[in-house]
Write a structure and sequence with these properties.
The protein contains six helices and twelve strands. By secondary structure, it is an alpha+beta fold. It has a domain of 176 residues: Glucose Permease (Domain IIA) (Distorted Sandwich), CATH 2.70.70.10. Strands 1, 4, 6, 7, 8, 9, 11 and 12 form an eight-stranded antiparallel beta sheet that branches. A two-stranded antiparallel ribbon has the order 2-3. A two-stranded antiparallel sheet has the order 5-10. A hairpin with a 4-residue loop joins β7 and β8. It is elongated, with a radius of gyration of 38 Å.
């Protein structure tokens, strides 16, 4: 004869089973939730990694461009070890008449005015006002008030106005390939303003006597990437004096400069075709 089931035992067994199933479900849900969170974190990290790689690639691209620009500037200035010694005679041997024309057309050449009377040369001198020995960064041309002053090469006006540093009414022109020219002590009626484009031979002002000056004259300077150059050779630069120009102006890395000038000319020709 079968014994009757104990209701309390059945209830206890059922309750224990239910609790066990509930615990299993909760644990399963907990780990399932954790798995989802881990997956989400993996996706987020994967996206961040992808973005980081893209940023790194972009930074490397920018860095390479900057490095290329720095290398180009160092070539022009002559800071690269391989370009520290120039063999001008070898460079001149490769300069055809056509290349010479390209170079001369790119440089600030010729006199900035009709006046040819040099009252102070480039180099050390006794300052006429301060009465101390100072380096004169340019050449002074004496002349009558109002003689037209002309740009010696194409360029953009970097500065046009009065300065308190002694130059009086001053014009600075930014030319191609790192060259700049400076015209000081002019009359106040300057013919250009900052940002203007000027062509070689264009009148930019008139000979004056402003600033620290003992008489009417033009102070004229040429700079090449912050190097101060003697303007004398540039005043008379032409096909006949081309060799002398390269031999005298040793502060210019001619090999890199000529290469840059000819490359730009070739790009210009290909663009205009």
């Amino acid at each position: 004869m079968l014994k009757r089931s104990n209701p309390k035992l059945l209830l206890f067994t059922f309750t224990s089973l239910a609790i066990t199933l509930l615990i299993v479900a909760m644990v399963s849900l907990f780990f399932s939730s954790k798995t989802v969170d881990v997956k989400r974190q993996e996706i987020a990290l994967s996206q961040k990694l992808k973005k980081l790689k893209a940023d790194i690639a972009q930074k490397e691209y920018y860095y390479q461009n900057i490095k290329d620009n720095i290398d180009e500037m160092q070539d022009l200035v002559g800071l690269n070890q391989k370009n520290q010694t120039q063999n001008i005679h070898k460079i001149l041997q490769k300069c055809t008449p056509f290349i010479k024309k390209i170079v001369l057309a790119s440089l600030p050449t010729g006199y900035p005015s009709k006046s040819r009377r040099i009252t102070s040369t480039f180099g050390y001198r006794m300052h006429p006002i301060l009465h101390v020995r100072k380096f004169h960064h340019g050449i002074d041309f004496g002349g009558h008030l109002g003689i037209p002053i002309k740009a010696t090469a194409n360029g953009i006006i970097e500065f046009a106005g009065y300065t308190k540093g002694g130059y009086g009414n001053l014009v600075i022109i930014d030319h191609s390939f790192g060259f700049k020219t400076l015209y000081g002590h002019m009359l106040r009626n300057l013919q250009v303003k900052k940002g203007d484009f000027v062509s070689k031979g264009e009148v930019i002002g008139y000979l004056g006597n402003t600033g620290m000056s003992t008489g009417p004259h033009l102070h004229y300077e040429i700079k090449y990437i912050r190097n101060i150059l003697n303007p004398s050779d540039f005043l008379v630069a032409n096909m006949h004096s081309f060799n002398k120009l390269l031999l005298e102006q040793t502060r210019i890395n001619w090999q890199a400069l000529i290469r840059a000038m000819t490359n730009q000319y070739q790009k210009y020709v290909s663009f205009t075709k």
